[in-house]
Predict the 3D structure of the following.
Amino acid sequence: MAGELSVKKLKSQVKAGGNALRAVLRAVFGEGKPADRALSGFFRENRQYGSRDRQFVSESVYALLRSWGILRRFLPEERRAELESGMIRIGRAELDALLFGALYLEGVNLPAADLLAKELGVPWPKPDPDNPSPFLAKAEALGVSFGMKLRFADRDLVPEWVFLLLPGEFPADRFLSDLRRRPPMWLRIQSPDLDRLAAELRSCGTELLRQARIPNALGIVNPKVNLYTLESFRRGEFEVQDLASQCIGLVAAPKPGERWLDACAGAGGKTLELAELMKRTGTVVACDVRAYKLDDLRTRARRAGFPNIVTRAWDGRPFRGKQVGQYDGVLVDAPCSCSGVWRRNPDGRWTLSPEAVGEAAELQKKILEAAAMAVRPGGVLIYGTCSLFPRENAEVVETFLAAHAEFQLEAFEHPLTGEACGGMLQIYSFDGDCDSMFVARMRRRTGEEARA
């Protein structure tokens, strides 16, 4: 299999991949850093790698993290426990074995996997053709190659405690199947000439996905070019925003000329979407307790020429004075466990704890209480997370509504299917090959409604 690249080049890539794995595992488990930041740091410290090497390293790291629940079982139990507690003492042979397993299971860079198998002295795995799950058959065949007789299940892809926090009717099979696959990159088009932009993207060798009900959403499978270097991006004609994230703005459905508050704006993806949905009229006030995050939003707004976005710092306390009841709509895109983006950030499956989910829920309740003060009578309150856990989603909304009779759920259509929703919606990854997110839409009663 090693015919496409020279053995020397393959060995160089394998060495780079092993070094990156050690650095990322140390950062994720030892320092609590997200894998994407750890990988960016590795590249900054190793500028000698060209684009092809960087692609190999990135694919290797994420292949490992996506299949970590399987691959971790090939390590001795004490070594596994040490590694996941931050004691990163892992040898070259172990790194090479993990890298081989990751490439083989994901089916990427097979020439490098073939080279690793030969260097490790293990036979190429032969999956059982009678196993109904090709993925699990490969995992078990990998174990045989390593001299281990192991049985696997899709549930191995996440910690067991996760299933205790999911709803009873949760579609686990479909969800776990998606966790094995890389998600596409979704764009939200901010140009009226979508066809021209789509043609430009296709000319870069990219395969595009379309969503029937959201015409300005384009999905990109395995992008062959850095989209941030394109002139169309520099002109602000598109933003990278997951399809599920776009749905939250569509549920908010702001009208032109309205005044909206994005209370947890962060880098501003949903702020920009609200401003665009309002046809660049009215005002969107973007706030965040992390004031530095708003710098990214200001840059993005300037690039696309948005005239209706204002940024303000927020201390997280309830809105008072002139801000009370002054907004037609308030969006609370609350910080959360991020369990809904585990396809994109697979390391999060192994660094999150059930205690952290409970802590997030308590914070979400406080933020929702504080931001709701800004909604005018008759206005809309939107609550969203990128979580799968009811404790962060429906339970937060229900607690809020029980304490605030002036708000009530308001029905809306599922943006991806058109189905009726009774005011709360859990979007799953398989709804549109996207992240998983939750959104609730509430309406504040007017004085006359409250008295009726």
